[in-house]
Design a protein that fits this description.
Keywords: DNA-directed DNA polymerase, Nucleotidyltransferase, Transferase. This is DNA-directed DNA polymerase. With 296 residues, the chain is of the alpha/beta class. Helix 9 packs antiparallel against helix 10 and helix 10 (217-224) packs across helix 13 (278-295). The relative contact order is 0.10. Strand 3, helix 4 (116-127) and strand 4 (133-139) form a beta-alpha-beta unit. The longest helix is centred in the C-terminal third of the chain and has 25 residues, at 228-252. The protein has a five-stranded parallel β-sheet with strand order 2-3-4-1-5, sandwiched between helices. The protein has helices spanning 28-43, 59-65, 84-95, 116-127, 147-150, 163-169, 175-180, 185-193, 197-211, 217-224, 228-252, 256-271, 278-295; strands at 20-24, 72-76, 104-109, 133-139, 154-157.
């Protein structure tokens, strides 16, 4: 059974696989689907040698279906961080012999959430791999990982559909929604299912009104502050506006305002996670007030 992996850069035969890979891709669901197929292939007990092939009915495949496979470990930090204790658990897992006398597979989802100490603790495992073990670090972009981690792993990139392809699938969605998703089809599907499109449209319209000085800062900030997704969307719109001004200023040679706005937005993004309570509203208001004369 071929899982039709969307990972063209992998070698064809399992014997040629490296022991550690960084799997890079914006689309989280697509990442997981690919890594699930690869995991099944590596743990299948039939005589499978082609990457992506698995039988689907052996004891190992059935254990994976039931989420009880003793030679598979998933570390997931969708929220919060992956700490040293999580990495120690991985090391302990791989130090034991395979229960089914086959491969062992560890998947670290949201690897970008590893603390620096956790990343350093993982180095020893990556440097001294045990026989027949495979480690996959899943992240949106490998640039967020420590250089020492990068130097000990091979890379897999899972490409998204193009904007034009997504427009064919979701013709009702505006370009700014597709752009905000980073061309992630699973994100778009989720937003459509959760009926978020109207919210995106309303925030976009408020942003345009704000740019035209038709509404004050507090109207748009009050609209998004209680909704992290819409807050991120507003920041995306500001960033997109800055990029437009930079392209325009490249022709005139006057990019001071756009560069200043970009620095202000970068500073806000770096500190916003540390801001709590009512201070979030104040910080957002200060950002809008600061960038307002620079991007209008």
């Amino acid at each position: 059974m071929n899982n039709s992996l969307d990972i063209l850069s992998l070698p064809k035969h399992q014997d040629n696989l490296a022991h550690a890979y960084i799997v890079e891709g914006i689309d989280i669901k697509k990442r997981l689907i690919n890594i699930q197929g690869l995991t099944r292939s590596l743990l299948c007990q039939t005589e499978q040698t082609i990457v992506g092939d698995f039988c689907g009915h052996c004891h190992s495949c059935n254990l994976l279906n039931a989420d009880t496979h003793p030679d598979f470990m998933m570390v997931n930090a969708d929220e919060g961080t992956i700490g040293v204790d999580d990495v120690r658990a991985i090391s302990q897992f791989l130090s034991n012999m395979s229960h089914l006398s086959g491969n062992q597979v560890v998947v670290i989802e949201h690897a970008e959430n590893m603390t620096e100490n956790a990343s350093n603790a993982l180095l020893k495992t990556l440097e001294e791999p045990t026989n027949k073990c495979f480690i996959f670090l899943l992240c949106k972009t490998k640039s967020v990982l420590l250089p020492t981690i990068l130097s000990r792993c091979q890379f897999i990139q899972i490409n998204n559909k193009s904007k034009d392809e997504l427009k064919l699938t979701y013709p009702e969605l505006a370009d700014y929604i597709i752009g905000f998703s980073n061309n992630s089809e699973s994100e778009l599907a989720k937003w459509v299912e959760e009926q978020k499109v109207e919210e995106f449209t309303e925030v976009y319209q408020l942003f345009i009104q704000w740019l035209k000085k038709q509404i004050p800062n507090f109207v748009i900030s009050n609209k998004v502050l209680s909704n992290p997704l819409m807050s991120s969307f507003l920041l995306y719109l500001i960033e997109k506006r800055i990029r437009q001004l930079m392209l325009k200023s490249a022709k005139t040679g006057n990019s001071t305002s756009a560069l200043t706005a970009s620095k202000l937005l970068t500073k806000y993004n770096q500190t916003s996670n540390l801001i709590k309570g009512q201070n979030k509203a104040l910080a957002m208001s200060q950002l809008l007030t600061s960038v307002e004369p620079l991007i209008r």
